[in-house]
Amino acid sequence: MVCESQLSFAHALMAAWGNSYKAGNIVMAVNRVTGYFDASGGVEHPVMIVAGYLSTVQKWNLFEKSWRKILARKEFDVPYFHMKEFAPSTDVFKTWKGDERRRRKFLNLLISAIADHAKAGFACGIKHDTWDAIDSRYPLTESFGCAYALTGRDCVNKMHVWGEQLHSYSRNEIRSVFEAGDKGKGHLLKVVEEAHKPIPIFEPGRPDAKTGHPGTPALQAADFAAWELLKAMLSEKELAPFEEYRVSLQKLSRAVPVSWTQYKEQDFLELLSSMGIWQRT
Asked: Does the domain spanning 31-274 belong to CATH 2.60.40?
């Protein structure tokens, strides 16, 4: 018989090692850090956001237990967290509508779990009109494929700056996991490989009945951050004091050190110049 903690720990090791995980690799694997990322936005919104969190394998194992324990509490009793359902009180949250006390307590507990276990948060956003304006002059689509791939690549690069330059991890000790349902995975794989970083792993954030996958709580936390940042970008409050943003976003920003950025025109031009990508002829 395998106990729950052993299953959870094995799952965390798989996230860090991918297909190369073997029981004999445990000593090396626990020295790794993993970042979990999800996207929000896309064709139905004028922006694309990729956001998520990084921590050690040990911390992610503890986080998963804590997150699932919160979901299972009698006052909540939900199988997963997904902001697209939670915000309008639909699907598993359909009985929560108007119950602001329960909703607020639930989010505060989830934020506390993130604060207790994640080491850093990263996010990158791109407005589609900015992408289109630059793409009309420079080969953005040919170089990166889509905005999702570039924002994901940016998050991976930030992870490696944090890990390699600030905390002395080797490149191969830093892994990334992305939500499996996001579009543009092929482009993301290509640009991360071209950046000479370990290839991302893809997992479902929520339980998948077809495969039997239980869902990945760290990706649910990433979904939380991505959704909140999407709402912030859609609010057009970019120059407003941070105190005017949603309280939940303010709390997430203080939970762990974060690097949340948005590509503006000058950022695109600097990136393209550094990569030797010139204007269309």
From this structure: no
